[in-house]
Amino acid sequence: MDLEIFVKNNVFSWFEDRAGEEVVRSSSLSSIDDVGRAEISRYSEHLVLENLRYAFENSSYYRDLFKEKDVVVGEIDSLDVFREEVPLTSVEEVVGNHYRFMAVTRNDIFRGFTDSGKRILYTKEELKNLVKSISAGLETVGLDRDDRLLITFPKETEWGCPFLVKMAAVECDCTVMHTDHLTADEQVEKMGEFEPTAVIGSHPYLYTLAKTVDRMDIGLSGVDIDKMIMSRGCVYYPFNEDIRNEIERIYRCDVYDHYGTTETGFAVAIECQDKDGLHVNESEFYLEVVDPETLEPLGSGEEGELVVTTLSREGMPLIRYRTGDITSIDNSIHSCGSILSRLNGIKGEVGNKYPGGSGLPLF
Ligand SMILES: [Zn+2]
Q1: Ligand 1 centroid to 236 CA: how many Å?
Q2: Quick one: which of 3, 37, 205, 322 has the fewest CB in 10 Å?
Q3: Which of 267, 271, 265, 253 is nearest to 340 (CA)?
């Protein structure tokens, strides 16, 4: 099930669950094929408002924030009002503050992820859902039962990022192997042994690996990769067509851009096989773009800071969370036929810690 079908399925199920209720009364969906932009928008709006109320009632951080800013949650009845009235949340507020963001009891939290000083909490059910999202992302770039996926994320304790990707690959019926952040020689040796058709890992690691393979002229005989998924997370790293072409030349494979941070559970958006914009996981996230200076909402196609609202997170919901990443959103139908919104790549970060073209940090 690729991301488009995944999102349409979730939206269709939501409409079915609410059959007869006012919120879905005027719709008549008989299959997921009937799910269009209007249905996705109605789903997003309802879940955003529902999550806003949930956060206010269950998270002490949001309760205090909304009271302080005079946000009357009950009066917010549309996405337009939501964008106008609800304040943004930034990373500085999350750092050291995760228990105030938490909307369940500590016993309900199964795993936390720490990154750049912030800790993000997940329930076990959320991690299981995450596996489904990641699996849909893998299928979007065409992974199936014939693929052998090499996972190169650094080793973590159980239910960490490589564990979740491994479970997702199993859902796609792929054969899987997990290595680690090995040296170029070691990683290529593993590739020779495992003979992967697909590789996934962090963007900076796979980029550095490719450059090292090229510079040291490490032989890739016996390595026949078809797809490489480069994941970009909390820290900005440049990616453009020149970088894509360079890595595709070195590995003789298709390279796909993937975006997901610790806060968002690693599964926000991924490119399809047309490699032109990242399809958004719209059943799990509501995305906006704002002007990073004025914080005013921007329209479709306008470049600014990406702001995320989670739609299904009970453990630690995030409302209008500033990612610090610069992008724009395209709502037109894609060349592949998908109706999902697309991120036009991550073009930079607010504050510009790694200015474009200045190179990548070394391992
Ligand atoms: Zn597409």
Answers
A1: 23
A2: 37
A3: 271
162 belongs to a structural domain: yes
What total of structural domains would you count in the chain? 1
Does 74 fall in a domain? Answer: no
Residues 6 and 283 sit within 8 Å (Cβ to Cβ) = yes
Q: Select from 53, 24, 25, 41 the least CA-distant residue to 79.
A: 41
Q: Give residue 260's domain range.
A: 88-349
What's the 299 CA to ligand 1 centre distance in angstroms? 21
Total residues found in the chain within this entry: 363
How confident is the model over 332-349, as a mean pLDDT? 95
Radius of gyration of the chain (CA): 20
Compute, in angstroms, the gap from residue 278 CA to the centroid of ligand 1: 7
Contacts with 216 (C-beta within 8 Å, 6 or more apart), sequence order:
184
Task: Give 219's pLDDT tier (boundaries 50, 70, 90).
Answer: confident
User: Would you say residue 201 lies in a domain?
Assistant: yes
On whether the CB atoms of residues 290 and 297 are closer than 8 A, the answer is: yes
268: nearest Cα among 255, 283, 248: 283
For every residue of 157-179, DSSP letters joined together read STTSHHHHHHHHHHHTT-EEEE-
Which residue, chain included where needed, has tokens 């491994």?
166
Ligand 1 centroid from CA 189, angstroms: 34
Structure tokens at 312: 């299904």
Q: What is the pLDDT of residues 115-145, one digit of tens each?
A: 878 999 999 999 999 999 999 999 999 999 9
Ligand 1 midpoint to CA 337 (Å): 7
Task: Write the CA distances from 129 to 13, 70, 87, 266, integer angstroms.
Answer: 15, 34, 28, 12
Q: How far is the CA of 336 from the centre of ligand 1 (A)?
A: 4
Average pLDDT, the chain: 92
Element (H, E) at 213: helix 203-215
- Asked whether 257 and 247 are in contact (CB, 8 A), the reply is no
| Bridge partners, residue 254, by sequence | 227
Tokens found for residue 149: 């996926």
How far does residue 211's CA lie from ligand 1's centre (Å)?
28
The CATH number linked to 331 is 3.40.50.12780
What is the percentage of the chain residues whose pLDDT exceeds 90? Answer: 82
Please give the backbone phi and psi of residue 178, each rounded to the nearest 5 degrees, phi first.
-115, 125
